[in-house]
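User: I'm designing a mutation panel for Endonuclease III and want to avoid disrupting the core. Could you give me a predicted structure to guide residue selection? Please restate the sequence first so the numbering is unambiguous.

Assistant: Good idea. Sequence first, for numbering, then the predicted structure tokens:
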Amino acid sequence: MLEHVRIHFSSCAGRGYAPRLAVQREPCRRGWVGRSHVPRERLPAPAVGRGGYPAGVSARDALDGRETRTALVRRARRIDRILAETYPDARAELDFGSAWELLVATILSAQTTDVRVNATTPVLFDRWPDPEALAGADRTELEEVLRPLGFYRAKSEALLRLGRRVLDDFGGEVPRTLPELVTLPGVGRKTANVVLGNAFGVPGITVDTHFGRLARRFGWTTQTDPDKVEAEVGALFPPRDWVMLCHHLIWHGRRRCHARRPACGACPVAALCPAYGEGETDPVKAAALVREPRG
């Protein structure tokens, strides 16, 4: 039979001390029970709700301001771990063989898809393989090659200027620092981080439309300015995880967490997402929304 712990006051007041609680421990079948009058076998287990949160608390609390900083960091990193397991092949989806090719391909990917860029760059790099060749390209010929990508005149102008700038100011080599990269024509912070992270292994966060959308849905930030999103999300993860974090979110955004019809019912992180329910929650209907990126 289980025995209880007896709690009583020790009589020490007469000695000039404040009364204190004294705990008498007595054995039960599962060992010693202390500091409680309830036998260990009768202690209720903590109730656990959706996604591993305590009962009455959910990921939705992140949007209500009730999530602590520590809880936010843990939830964010757990989401990233799950996405890493879901997309083990996540990587940059632009084809490239060098930092120069990645730089050019990233500039060309604006307002079009990676699939179309990948269909165009083999011809481009075969004809103009390096900054020197591109700097001397015939504009009309270059425009014809880039026509399928849209905005081909502006992109042709950007590439001609890029080739000359890299050749004249950096000896034909793609610079390896953010301050230098963002001085190049057509290169902003997003493009620079893509090149640094995927060509040179330098930690950086690429805030494209998918990354920003998912970071807000996950409750990691409320910002819409890419620089502020980068700063707030970056503070939740160690720098060594930044590059792969971007790949995980971008792959998830392209395949499940769509802008208009997210597949909530087929989402591996649904239990941790404050925005769960914005899209289709029926598992069968949601599965039909899962797709590979379109060309």
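For picking mutation sites, this is relevant: Strands lie at 6-9, 21-24, 27-28, 31-32. The mean pLDDT is 85.
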